[in-house]
Amino acid sequence: RKQIMRVGFIGLGIMGASLAANLQKAQHKVTVHDARRAAADSHIEAGAIWAETPAEVAQNSDVVFTSLPGPPEVEAVALGPNGILAGMKRGGAYFDLSTNSRATVRKIAAAFAEKGAHMLDAPVSGGPRGAKTGKLAIWVGGDKDVFEKFKDVLGAMGDQARYVGPIGQATVAKLVHNCAGYAMNLALAEVFTMGVKAGVEPLALFEAVRQGALGRRRTFDGLIDQFLPGTYDPPAFMLRHAHKDVSLAVALGKEVSVPMRACNLTLEEMTEAMNRGWQERDSRSAMLLQQERAGVKIAVDAEKLSAVVKAGDG
After folding, report:
1. How far apart are CA 221 and CA 217, in angstroms?
2. What percent of the chain has pLDDT over 70?
3. What is the spatial distance between Cα 40 and Cα 57, in angstroms, rounded to a whole number?
4. Is 66 helix (H, G, I), strand (E, B) or coil?
5. Could you give the CA distance from residue 137 to residue 221 in angstroms, rounded to a whole number?
6. Would you give the distance in Å from CA 190 to the centre of its chain?
7. I need a labelling partner for 116 at 20 to 30 A (CA). Which of 32, 94, 109, 272 fits?
8. pLDDT digits (tens, 9 = 90+) for 133-161
């Protein structure tokens, strides 16, 4: 049987308003607070209780959530005068759904631990539409038992609540995810402007590449075959062939006068890998250069990786 809990929610912006509404739909007893009282009107009409301060939210709740713009706001609401910590009972739990900094999350968690309470970082991914529909990933860092205790409540907001590791690690995962997306946007903008300037109609170009090998794959599935297990031999596609392809692409960019900074950098990386004598290795062997620079070695057990991929696809 589903447990009905007293849930506090602070920050009723574009994301927070939908998340709090979904908690209400799941029949939880919700107490709300926002910098703007008017933001809570629809929630109060649906039965939520208004609290004047974050401390009051914490006093009325078994678990508190915040959805705020960034680190300064989260720190002020969590640790400031009349903040969540001031009203938090021993053993209470607080999940921050914001995209935060790891240092801020750790600082807040340490302050909560001193009072015998729990703070977990729980950034979300799915955007405003996901917040509304409940098709949302929630990545959680912190005490695993606390995550398990409130998993049902998290499930009222998102269909993919996942424990990542100790405090701060969910924040790291979120930053990896978001930064990757924007870096890919840059590369996509470069190659698309090149393609269009070279004469291909934009919709026809999109239709073509969407059905290519890369287009049919989930974004991060490109890490599965070589990068994560750390196996670049035998090659699925040789580096020297890939080097030729990228050389041809940036040459076309020059021909049609399109600046391609990210793609030229990609070509330089691949050239450096060629100079290591990796021509016959897999094209992704160029990714080893970054592992070297970062001082990390990645080699995931193939069977464990396969199990994670299967679970994700199921």
Report:
1. 6
2. 100
3. 13
4. strand
5. 17
6. 24
7. 32
8. 999 999 999 999 999 999 999 999 999 99
Q: Residue 107: what residue type? A: K
Pair 188, 249: CB distance under 8 Å: no
Task: Give the residue carrying structure tokens 């392809």.
Answer: 245
Structure tokens at 141: 């860092």
DSSP E strand stretches across the chain: 6-10, 29-33, 49-50, 63-66, 93-96, 118-121, 124-125, 137-141, 160-165
- Predicted local distance difference test score (pLDDT) of residue 98: 97
Query: Could you say which of 89, 151, 174, 310 is catalytic?
Result: 174
253: left (phi over 0), alpha (psi -120 to 50) or beta: alpha
Are 291 and 297 spatial neighbours (Cβ–Cβ below 8 Å)?
yes
**Please, are residues 32 and 58 in contact by the beta-carbon 8 Å criterion?**
no
Residue written as token pair 């290519």? 212
Contact call for residues 15 and 124 (beta carbons, < 8 A): yes
pLDDT band at 51 (very low <50, low <70, confident <90, very high): very high
Report whether 127 contacts 196 (CB < 8 A).
Answer: no
Question: Helix (H, G, I), strand (E, B), or coil: what is residue 220?
Answer: helix
Scan for tokens 């035998």, then name that residue: 234
Q: Which residues neighbour 67 within 8 Å (Cβ) at sequence distance 6 or greater?
A: 9, 10, 11, 12, 13, 15, 16, 19, 97, 98, 124
Nearest to 112, CA basis, from 94, 99, 96, 98: 94
Q: Are 59 and 87 in contact (CB under 8 A)?
A: yes
CB-based contact 137:124 (threshold 8 Å) = yes
The reported pLDDT for the residue numbered 169 is: 98
Given a cut of 70, whether residue 170 has pLDDT beyond it is yes
For the question of residue 89 being annotated catalytic, the response is no
Structure token digits, residue 225: 């075959």
Distance of alpha carbon 162 from its chain centroid, rounded?
Answer: 11
Q: What is the pTM of this model?
A: 0.91
